Structure formats: C-alpha cells, structure tokens
Here is the input.
Amino acid sequence: MDDEILKHVIKPCIEDSDTEPSAAVNCLLDIYTRRADGTAGVITQLHLIVSVLRRGYKIVDHDRVMKMLRILDRLCRAVPFKVDHRDTKELYEQVYELASQLVSFDQIRRDAFNLLLTLLPRANASVRVSATTVKNILEFANSSKDSDDYELYLN
Here is the structure.
C-alpha cells in the first residue's frame, strides 16, 4: 500500500470524528497484518497508528491495543531519528505522551513501558518530554513500587 493511499484515503477516513475508534483500529490492524507491503513511508504509518491509538485506546479492547503497540514499536525502530527532522521530533513526543498514558492500564503496561524504554535512548535533548509525560511515568513508577511489581523493570 503506497504512501499516497495512506495519506489521502485511509488517514482522512480514520481520523473522521464519525469513525468509531474500534473500527479505525480494526482497519489499521487489517492493513498492517494482511495487506501492508512495506512500501509506504514509515512516518505516514506512524502518524496513522498514533492518531488511532490516541483516539481510542480507552475504549478498544486491550488485545488490539497491544497489537497496535507492537506495530508502533516496530515502526519506531524503523524511523531514522534526525534532530533536524520536524516530523520525527513531533512523532517521538506524541509516542512518549501516548505510551506514558498507556502504562496505567494493567493489561498493557509492560508493552507500553518497554516502548518507552526502547525510545528514550534513541532520541536526544531536542525531543521535548512534556510535564504530563513525566507525571504519568512517575505515577506509574510509584504504583508499581507500592504494589511490589518490580518484575516489570527487570525485562
């Protein structure tokens, strides 16, 4: 599936406010697991995944969110981080924010935390980590400490 189709056909449909978040997730999972041929730009794919997850992670079942997180992780690993590339910086900031929100959900917290661990060393000081992201991570760390869930940090 080429970049133009993703940008000009799929993205507007998925981001339409009338599109149910679960339908958008199903659409993207279908594209990535059955039809994606790897030719579309990684940046466009990242934008789509981040957009859909931001809209629907609270109401979509955790199995599908975990699948989307794994795709997001693979795409983030494929993005060549460049300080002067505005899209890359913005995407990293959005992914940090999103993953920091997802660590509060028991079923997906490990995947979200591992995504954060994977991304943090790849970026540098040019990527702004918001106060909300830091707050979410600290709350997650405190709740893990309070529940003696140290295993999460060992993998």
Q: What stands out?
A: The chain has one domain: 3-154. The helical segments are 3-15, 21-35, 42-56, 62-78, 86-102, 109-119, 131-146, 151-154. The longest helix spans residues 62-78.
